[in-house]
Amino acid sequence: MKGNGRIIEYALSTLARRKFKNFSIAVVFSALIAVLSSILFLTHAYKTETLKLLDNSPEIILQNMSGGRHELIPTEYIKTLSGIAGVGQITPRYWGYYYDSLTSANYTLMAVDENMRDIQLIDGRMPQTDTECAVGRGVADLRQAGLKDDFFLITGAELSVNLKIVGIFTANSAILTNDLVVMTKDSLIKFFNMPADKATDITVEVNNPAEVSMVARKIRRAFPNSRPILKNELIRTYDNIFNWRGGIVLTMFFGAIAAFMIFVWDKATGINAQERREIGILKAIGWETADVLTLKFWEGAVVATGSFLTGLILAYVHVFYFNAQFLAPVLKGWSVLFPRFQPMPYIDIYQIFVLFFLTVVPYVAASVVPSWKAAISDPDAVMR
Amino acid sequence: MSKKSLICALLLLAISVTAYAAEPHKPSPSDKCAVCGMLVGPHSKWLAQIIFKDGTVAFFDGPKDMFKFYCDIPKYNPNKTQADIEDIYVTEYYTAKPVKAQTALYVVGSDVMGPMGKEFVPVTPDKANNFMVDHKGQKTFKFDEIKAADLQSGETGMSHAVHKH
């Protein structure tokens, strides 16, 4: 048995002798890993981000329905809701969407409320009077506005509303607060022209998670026209959406994966006469089958692991430094209008292992097996 | 002693006495149920605890195990008796907050399962009827009505299977 270090040294020099073949395999291999892990990274980052966001969301969001569409909800429902056993805090929420033609972007306008727990002010404070507002960082960047700047909104009646920006905030999660504009309840009601006794929806906290479905059932019985949205339903839906989108993208690349498989198979298994001869010579000068296999193993491992790591790094840079420019439009969906959304680098080690075992291991196996066939035959026959 | 200092002393005494009334404790992640040995951290909505006069606490992963302990303290902790108990807390079902065990009613036979299967579900008396209807409860007990025999009977299910072999 030769020293393993010597064998690796020899493997590297063998690789260097066939520069073109190995280099082209490495390029294709890295590109494929980069694409696959970009998808995995991005899907995982979005999912984690959304789940983090839902962490603080109330157990039940109650919407009013009319004709199968979401409608404003009467605030008098609160009295009945508070009578249900197990219900904690009940809060009416006032919000709506606003399309800003100036920047061609959608904003979410929301009334300020004491338990906006996940909002962190970077600068300034929350709005206190009807002429003030606070904006998410995305909006501030888009409008190129800072503290104390004016913020124009056009109402449906072609009247403009002029608010002063008194705060700029960010949040644990960038997805939803990026496009958020927070103002006082009164100015929001006036802006959207909402009736005084109605809210957009009502959030209901339930103290004991075991009781959520019972509370939801009672709400449905009390208000047949309402739709209670449960937190775990939301989590499941988001999870499905991202899995589905990730799946679609993966399917698109299925052709690429298949092509790679054929390529790898061809390059790695197609042992040519020269390689056979080489194995024969090694055996003739006293190498054992085990040594030849170790050599081939290292050749495969160096190429595959090297390309795998290169691909991972490329994907990481693509997703977390360049905001996944190539993939984001497909996966994100709703906030395409927003130029800046920096996904947090959440990485699932499990996914990386799966990817490793699906690509590196088959490659190494594919390069060892044919050499094994050559190595167990008689050196004399192989060389001839 | 002047009148003023006497008042001060009395005030101080009053403050220290109120401060001494045992508050419910928060279990650490490694705290285990004193009866069944399960970690209590993941079951915070069922947590029960007995606080002794010397400041030590026994945690339980549900009222059922707390009663098992309470009815037969020497079996689990030979150094303690019922007389050493300062306060008992259980987690009320609807508020998910600790309440004094003596103030709650305990519903058995309901469809609500605790970490150890069927449970004596603690609810405040005004919500007891509501709970009985919603979750098909069969019987309510007051704190001092629960005896060792109730814990072993089929009413609470798992006790036979788990503790008789």
Descriptive keywords:
heterodimer; A: 384 residues; alpha+beta; 2 domains; seven-stranded mixed beta sheet; five-stranded antiparallel beta sheet; 14 helices; elongated; B: 165 residues; four-stranded antiparallel beta sheet; three-stranded antiparallel beta sheet; 9 strands; 31% helix; globular; disordered C terminus
SSE order and pairing:
The complex is a heterodimer of chains A (384) and B (165).
Chain A: H1 4-17, H2 19-55, E1 60-66, E2 69-71, E3 73-74, H3 77-82, E4 87-93, E5 95-100, E6 105-111, E7 119-124, E8 132-136, H4 137-143, E9 150-154, E10 160-171, H5 174-177, E11 180-183, H6 185-192, E12 198-199, E13 201-206, H7 212-222, E14 226-230, H8 231-252, H9 254-269, H10 273-284, H11 289-321, H12 328-332, H13 349-376, H14 379-383
Parallel strand pairs in A: 6-11, 8-10
Antiparallel strand pairs in A: 1-2, 1-13, 1-14, 3-12, 4-13, 5-6, 7-10, 8-11, 9-10
Helix pairs in contact in A: 1-11, 2-8, 2-9, 2-11, 2-13, 9-13, 11-13
Chain B: H1 3-20, E1 48-52, E2 57-60, H2 63-71, H3 73-76, E3 85-91, E4 98-100, E5 105-108, E6 113-114, E7 117-118, E8 121-123, H4 125-134, E9 139-142, H5 148-152, H6 159-163
Q: Can you describe this structure?
A:
The complex is a heterodimer of chains A (384) and B (165). With 384 residues, chain A is an alpha+beta fold. Chain A folds into two domains: 4-53 and 240-383, no CATH class; 60-229, no CATH class. Helices cover 54% and strands 20% of the residues of chain A. In chain A, strands 5, 6, 7, 8, 9, 10 and 11 form a seven-stranded mixed β-sheet that branches. In chain A, strands 1, 2, 4, 13 and 14 form a five-stranded antiparallel β-sheet that branches. In chain A, strands 3-12 form a two-stranded antiparallel ribbon. In chain A, α2 packs across α11 (289-321). The longest helix of chain A has 37 residues, at 19-55. Chain B has 165 residues and is α+β, with helices and mostly antiparallel strands. Chain B has one domain (31-163). Chain B has helices spanning 3-20, 63-71, 73-76, 125-134, 148-152, 159-163, and strands spanning 48-52, 57-60, 85-91, 98-100, 105-108, 113-114, 117-118, 121-123, 139-142. In chain B, strands 2-1-3-4 form a four-stranded antiparallel β-sheet. In chain B, strands 8-5-9 form a three-stranded antiparallel β-sheet. Chain B is globular, with a radius of gyration of 18 Å. Chain B starts with a helix and ends with a helix. Residues 13-19 and 154-165 of chain B have low confidence and may be disordered. Classes of the chains: A alpha+beta (384), B alpha+beta (165). Chain A binds chain B through residues 85-86, 88, 207-211, 214, and chain B through 45, 93-97, 112, 127, 130-131, 134-135.
